Amino acid sequence: MVPKRLRAPFDERPVARETAVAVVAVGAFVVWIQALWSLAYRVTSTVDPDALATTDLGELTATALSNRVVLLAGIAVFALAHARLRGLPVELSLPDRTDIPMVATAALVPVAGVAAVTVLASATGTTLAVLEGTYYAQDADPLLPATLTLLTLLVGLPAYVFVAHEAVQRPLSAAGRPWTAVAVTTLFVGAIGPREIVGTGLPARAAVVFLVLAACVALPAVAAHAFDYEWLPALCAIPLALFVGGVLVSRFGGADGLAEGALVFTGLAVVAVAAHGYERTGSLVVPAVAYAAFVVGIDAVAFAVGIGATP
Questions:
Q1: pLDDT tens-digit profile of 251-303?
Q2: Distance of CA 176 to the CA centre of its chain
Q3: Fewer CB atoms < 10 Å away: N or C end of the chain?
Q4: Contact criterion met (CB below 8 Å) for 196 and 36
Q5: Which residues contact 20 (CB under 8 A, 6 or more apart)?
Q6: Measured between alpha carbons, how far is 69 from 75 in angstroms, rounded to an integer?
Q7: So what's the pLDDT on residue 52?
Q8: Dihedral of the CA atoms 167, 74, 106, 141 (nearest 10)?
Q9: Which residues contact 286 (CB under 8 A, 6 or more apart)?
Q10: Structure pTM?
Q11: Is residue 113 part of a domain?
């Protein structure tokens, strides 16, 4: 139980409260996933799934599945613990007939974005395969990239849906700010990258980054509660603005050329349409479709243009 004096600055500012809590939850999730990767590799080395397969593709699939089982179990445990701590019921509703146009939009926007990036990449002398670092031999079997895509979706899809639309969007929307929930979800998750949530990295660095961001979100609310100066909350919001601006500049500025920048922007658009669809329908099917279409679209085009290409 949080002491009353610590809750006071946020009692009348539910958006600040839910955003700060969401940042901490996502940070904890990222650290949790990165720790699980180490456990997954140990399980794989102990089980030795390669002994159960007779082909290279079979060995790859068996090894990857042994990793994914650990990660999926970890995601489920974290999601259930989060729902219990936040007092949120687990909802898995399906869209009804009136939501079909929204589901179709969620599928078409990522595909259109990937198509636009592909055309732009070609016009600027590169390809989506180069941007993704994906290369295949001339006689590559399509079953290989299809398997890799399915393995990516196996963990990436539930992780994305939980982070973006359960940990971030749903509590903000419940606080009575649906459009704020869509905007914050798009900015926050889009800046991370919808496909990068389950990536590996340094857990300690990730924890520090998310804690600093949570402090930046909380600072203006605390200032508004503790002091009567109207200008102070705006001044205390400067660190948050600098943090968000720095992340966006890093995300887009780190893009190698116009085409890669367009790919980053497409990721933001995918999160936006997924968040809007979830807000409209209340069904996680819509963001799941958007994410799956994005991943499948990128992988399919990268395979098509990457066959026989030289790294």
A1: 776 666 788 888 989 999 999 999 999 999 989 999 999 999 999 999 998 88
A2: 23
A3: N
A4: no
A5: 10, 214, 217, 218, 221
A6: 10
A7: 56
A8: 160
A9: 95, 99, 102, 103, 106, 274, 277, 278, 280
A10: 0.88
A11: yes
Instruction: Give the long-range contacts of residues 43-52, CB within 8 A, separation 24 or more.
Output: 43/67, 43/69, 43/70
Q: From start to end of the chain, where are the E strands? A: none
Cα separation, 266 vs 272, whole angstroms: 10
b (16+ CB within 10 A) / e for 69-87 = bbbbebbeebbeebbeebe
Which residue range is the domain that position 93 belongs to?
10-307
Encoding tokens for residue 127?
Answer: 């390809």
Q: Is 38 within the bounds of a domain?
A: yes
pLDDT digits (tens, 9 = 90+) for 169-227: 998 888 777 888 999 999 888 888 888 888 756 566 677 788 888 888 888 888 877 77
Token representation of residue 107: 């599928």
What total of structural domains would you count in the chain? 1
In a domain, 135, yes or no: yes
